[in-house]
Amino acid sequence: MQNSEEKVVAVIMVGGPTKGTRFRPLSFNNLKPLFPLAGQPMVHHPISACKRIPNLAQIFLIGFYEERELALYVSSVSNELKVPIRYLKEDKPHGSAGGLYYFRDVIMEDAPSHIFLLNCDVCCTFPLPDMLVEHKRYGGMGTVLVIKVSAESANQFGELVADPITNELLHYIEKPETFVSDLINCGVYVFTPDIFTAIQDVSTHREDSASLRRVSSFEALHSATRTLPTDFVRLDQDILSPLAGKKQLYTYETADFWEQIKTPGMSLKCSSLYLSQFRYTSPHLLASGDGTKSATILGDVYIHPSAKVHPTAKIGPNVSISANVRIGAGVRLTNCIILDDVEIKENAVIIHAIVGWKSFIGKWSRVQAEGDYNAKLGIAIIGESVTVEDEVVVINSIVLPNKTLYDSVQDEIIL
Length: 415
Hints:
Elements: E1 8-15, E2 36-37, E3 40-41, H1 44-50, E4 56-63, H2 67-81, E5 85-89, H3 95-102, H4 104-107, E6 114-119, E7 122-124, H5 128-138, E8 142-148, E9 158-162, E10 169-174, E11 183-191, H6 194-213, H7 217-223, H8 235-243, E12 249-253, E13 258-260, H9 264-281, E14 296-297, E15 301-303, E16 308-309, E17 314-315, E18 319-321, E19 326-327, E20 332-338, E21 343-344, E22 349-355, E23 360-361, E24 366-368, E25 380-382, E26 387-388, E27 393-395, E28 398-399, E29 404-405, E30 409-410, E31 413-414
Parallel strand pairs: 1-4, 1-6, 4-5, 8-12, 14-17, 15-18, 16-19, 17-20, 18-20, 19-21, 20-22, 21-23, 22-24, 22-25, 23-26, 24-27, 25-28, 26-29, 27-30, 28-31
Antiparallel strand pairs: 2-3, 6-11, 7-13, 8-11, 9-10
């Protein structure tokens, strides 16, 4: 019989400054996990999803950032959600499973019966309570959130085969060269504490193999480059693949949206997905207006309370406006993220774009792109503290921080 008071903890992997290089120029001076999507830091979305887990005791963030860089956010979100949140800094890379194991004593302080593991750069509805119910019903060590994707895109992710009746994970392969399945790993898991034994077994096996190899110094010399450190354990290749088909791992399929946030283009897409979700989860966060006393709002729009928007502006759909932004008369914003302290002057137009912190967009200027989230120049990016002078047009371009544009540009990266 299940104890109604059993505790659950959640672990969110947030990466570090050496990760997320594809997110530049937006991550030059700002942490990727704190980049706002739909007006809230990227990591806030999985954190608030964890809050819905029954009997949640604590949330842990694991990464490589310095503690001082996340301390203020961790403190404020912990107070806001009224749940203990701690940041744990890895001393070196341990892999997705190794990082979990490295902090096992801290994670197990409350003696939880279940441990959720999430990746910060995943965008989805995070159906965690339903996942936990099914996980308990399966009775296995772990349950993986999965989704069906097109056969063309499946090989960019971990592909898997599951039993159509029992949902047992039968086969798992990370980014295969040939098509295996249209079912992919979403990077969201729930485990029993037995996961720590499984990770320990991988490390022990590596140590034993290393001892055997020491018999031949010649072989050891040539195998050193192929051998991973004993405490570096990958969840996908080292845990999921070998344990598939052994009645220990199961799958829970979601039919909702799911994306990975690896690039600025995908952050813009995910911001719009979260905005659309707000209709059902947080309608109070969505702006409204008909152009009489406040700006005309079309579709899903978030406007920070401190932002000043002229009543003749037309905003939306899919727009997120951050703190202390000033938007002038006649401005038109569509499918864009406007970051803190930006000023947009009269009659400027911004479409399929991200405008960086403290930037200035002049009168009658235009910043736009085609809106292809996967293309290198599919969205326009204005870096931090950039000035776009009056009547300048920026099309399908990326402008790095601290630049001033006096002339129009198209299909360029301005260094």
